């Protein structure tokens, strides 16, 4: 047997140790690389900035695309291997679950990246990360990401549902509140001026000292609210930068918005619930432009009366200022909303409720959520007409709107076509017994029932006290027609139109004829062999 010489043994041992050292080093390097990925990316940004400064003004990159690229580098990319470690090793991690094909993910991504940049500059302990849920479905499932986009905050490894807005500013505010910074303290005029550049909406509180029951209630309100940045100050000059004309007092609260109704002072008691109620009624603009990102916030308003204006962008620009004047008169009572009439996702569902889905010119409608009623401004949408419309809505003097097709010509029809406008005349005020078929075009079994009704109408045509009618419930409404199952057959007896009798649509033609005879109580009996 070959016996290696001592020199050979040493060389073999050295090679083995060298290979083992390289293997351990590669593992360590991989782990350290993944754990320090965020720091490396930030260092890369600093390096780029230094290069740009050295290159002078001519080399400054100021396009939005380059700013976004920088911001996106700050967001850590999660994968199957590093997700668990990142979440467990960091106290706060905000994860964006997205899919490359998802349009809403694409809209949210730049806002998320911009928020990451702002939070990094503010020294926030929050780590921002994103996960491609399509590429890593098992990891997404493990994090309970079930749709896209999804935002989840992990605090010491435990997830919380994101409940904030979707602009960069709203993400920053929500994140800071959830990571222990519900209130920002501003102590100087320059800091206040810088703050104004960054925030579109905020609440300012002026206190003599940052202690006591009033200040505590202010902080509790700031913690409970998820969307608005709270600021506390103790210097009157600083307060006046944020909210002009604050009197020389040391207990003040107000909300500031970057729109027509910019400043609103609070005159209630310093209790958390009352402060939050004040914000609920005053945080919205005079006229809210409905978008995908703010729709949930707008719909959460406590205001139960809503006026919605549908118009093309150019037409709305002309109407905006006078509409704001009208909205100011009904502030805290009516929510005013604008929807681009060309936006099918938001406009069409509403307009369909009024049978106006093909409308192209300005439309003004209203809703009273308390009683589930809708209203339509049928005159020209001038500021004075809109004001009168709003006054009627507020005082309950408007007549609810019900959809109706144009009145048809029923000459020589055995089954008369009823519409919303003729329902009273043909059904409720008819001195005859009425058999009404309620149908919709998309109902699969309605056609069969319609054929049965036609046969019954022809067979009973000699009966003077029986009237046949049908109504398309998809485009016609009436306050006393409450049907949500199609087809439906309703029999209105001549002496009781308030309590129609529902007939089965799953029975035979002969059984229907028998039921009709029973309710009509006619001397004429149907010959069974004729049906």
In words, what does this structure look like?
With 531 residues, the chain is of the alpha/beta class. 41% of the residues lie in helices and 20% in strands. It is built from 18 helices and 20 strands. The chain has a five-stranded mixed β-sheet, with helices on both faces. A five-stranded mixed β-sheet has the order 6-8-7-9-10. A hairpin with a 2-residue loop joins strand 4 and strand 5 (158-161). Helix 5 (103-121) crosses helix 7, helix 8 packs parallel to helix 10 and helix 13 (313-329) crosses helix 15. The longest helix has 30 residues, at 6-35. The termini are far apart. Mean pLDDT is 86; it is low at 1-21, 23-64 and 522-529.
Defining traits:
5-stranded mixed β-sheet; 18 helices; alpha/beta; disordered C terminus; 531 residues
List the helices and strands and how they pair.
Blueprint lengths: L5 H30 L1 H19 L8 H11 L1 E3 L4 H7 L2 E7 L4 H19 L5 E6 L4 H6 L7 E6 L2 E4 L6 H11 L4 E3 L3 H10 L2 E7 L5 H12 L4 E5 L2 H7 L8 E7 L5 E3 L6 H11 L5 E2 L5 H5 L5 E7 L1 H17 L5 E6 L3 H10 L9 E6 L4 E4 L6 H13 L20 E3 L4 H6 L4 E7 L6 H14 L6 E7 L15 E6 L2 E8 L5 H12 L11
Parallel strand pairs: 1-3, 2-3, 6-8, 7-8, 11-13, 12-13, 16-18, 17-18
Antiparallel strand pairs: 2-4, 4-5, 7-9, 9-10, 12-14, 14-15, 17-19, 19-20
Helix pairs in contact: 3-5, 5-7, 8-10, 9-11, 13-15
């Amino acid at each position: 047997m070959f016996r290696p010489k001592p020199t050979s043994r040493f060389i073999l041992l050295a090679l083995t140790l060298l290979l083992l050292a390289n293997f351990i080093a590669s593992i360590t390097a991989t782990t350290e690389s993944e754990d320090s990925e965020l720091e490396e990316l930030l260092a890369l940004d600093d390096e780029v900035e230094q290069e740009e400064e050295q290159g002078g003004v001519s080399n400054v990159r100021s396009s939005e695309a380059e700013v976004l690229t920088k911001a996106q580098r700050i967001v850590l990319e999660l994968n199957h291997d590093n997700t668990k470690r990142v979440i467990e090793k960091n106290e706060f991690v905000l994860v964006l679950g997205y899919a490359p094909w998802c349009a809403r993910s694409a809209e949210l991504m730049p806002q998320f990246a911009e928020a990451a940049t702002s939070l990094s500059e503010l020294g926030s302990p929050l780590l921002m990360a994103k996960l491609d849920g399509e590429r890593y479905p098992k990891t997404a499932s493990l994090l309970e990401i079930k749709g896209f986009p999804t935002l989840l905050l992990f605090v010491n490894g435990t997830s919380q549902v994101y409940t904030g807005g979707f602009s960069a500013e709203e993400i920053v505010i929500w994140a800071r509140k959830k990571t222990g910074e519900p209130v920002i303290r501003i102590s100087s005029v320059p800091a206040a001026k810088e703050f104004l550049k960054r925030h579109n909406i905020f609440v300012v509180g002026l206190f003599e000292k940052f202690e006591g029951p009033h200040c505590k209630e202010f902080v509790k309100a700031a913690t409970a609210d998820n969307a608005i940045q709270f600021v506390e100050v103790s210097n009157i000059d600083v307060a006046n930068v944020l909210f002009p004309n604050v009197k020389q007092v040391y207990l003040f609260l107000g909300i500031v918005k970057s729109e027509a109704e910019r400043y609103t002072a609070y005159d209630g008691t310093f209790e958390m619930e009352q402060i939050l109620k004040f914000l609920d009624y005053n945080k919205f603009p005079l006229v809210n432009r409905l978008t995908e990102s703010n729709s949930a916030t707008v719909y959460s308003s406590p205001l139960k009366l809503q006026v919605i204006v549908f118009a093309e962008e150019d037409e709305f620009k002309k109407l905006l200022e006078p509409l704001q004047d009208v909205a100011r008169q009904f502030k805290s009572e009516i929510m005013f909303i604008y929807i681009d009439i060309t936006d099918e996702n938001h406009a069409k569902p509403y307009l369909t409720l009024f049978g106006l889905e093909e409308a192209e010119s300005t439309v003004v409608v209203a809703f009273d959520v308390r009683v589930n009623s809708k209203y339509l401004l049928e005159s020209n949408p001038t500021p004075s007409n809109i004001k009168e419309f709003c006054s009627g809505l507020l005082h309950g003097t408007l007549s609810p709107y019900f959809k109706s097709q144009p009145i048809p010509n029923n000459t020589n029809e055995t089954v008369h076509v009823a519409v919303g406008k003729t329902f009273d005349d043909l059904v409720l005020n008819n001195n005859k017994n009425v058999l009404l078929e309620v149908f919709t075009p998309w109902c699969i079994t309605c056609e069969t029932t319609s054929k049965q009704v036609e046969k019954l109408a022809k067979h009973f045509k000699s009966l003077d006290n029986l009237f046949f009618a049908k109504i398309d419930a998809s485009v016609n409404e009436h306050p006393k027609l409450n049907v949500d199952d199609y087809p439906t057959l309703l029999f209105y007896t001549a002496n009781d139109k308030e309590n129609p009798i529902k007939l089965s649509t799953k029975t035979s033609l002969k059984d229907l004829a028998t039921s009709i005879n029973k309710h009509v109580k006619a001397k004429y009996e149907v010959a069974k062999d004729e049906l």
